[in-house]
Amino acid sequence: MRLDKFLSQNSDSSRSLIQQAIKAGRVSVNDVIAKKGDQKLLGDEIITFDGKQVEAFQTRYLMLHKPLGYVCANSDSDYPVVMDLIRLPRWQELQIVGRLDIDTTGLVLLTDDGQWNHRITSPRHECDKIYRVTTANPISTDTAELFAAGVQLHGEKAPTRPAQLELISSHEARLKIHEGKYHQVKRMFAAAGNLVVALHRESIGNIQLDPALAPGEYRALTAEEIKSVAP
Ligand code: URA
Fold it and tell me: Locate the RNA-binding S4 domain: which residues (predicted)?
């Protein structure tokens, strides 16, 4: 890879600033001041910019505790977006792995590994997702059976796949689903004659939202977590 490309991929500086910096002798390769941006790198060189070593970025895998009122998007004209919470270089390259509604809280995964994202969200591999649901009306006793059998949602060709509902109290339950249709949980409860008033995603596959993360906080996934959802 060219030196200027490496620097633009792995620093916050624009290509033109990097060219100026190279001309000004602020960039070194293995302790030798670089003269040209098109200098070829083999990959094992130590690159310094203003005396600081520039490391090659690693692929990133994050879990975020999404707060209420944030849109799962890179930008929005009316509301804050989850990317506003991410203080990392090249945040624009992060993809949201399975979006949540603005009024849903909980686990959101972010990555710049498109294949990993696809493994988790593609209908063929889709992982289980567990939501904690609070409803306006008491959850009727037949709701679990209805969800286990599959619900025909308006505008969908096929009923939902069997889902497991575990009651926590009269108005609260944990729902495990295997798909990610648009507004799926809210639509399933609407089909059962109820209304979701609060929704929180607790897990995706084997990845559980870390209880140490307050709303708005994020952390890198561990190697086991990364492997567990897309082995
Ligand atoms: N189902 C919904 O209805 N909303 C979400 O945000 C996630 C799942």
Answer: 1-59
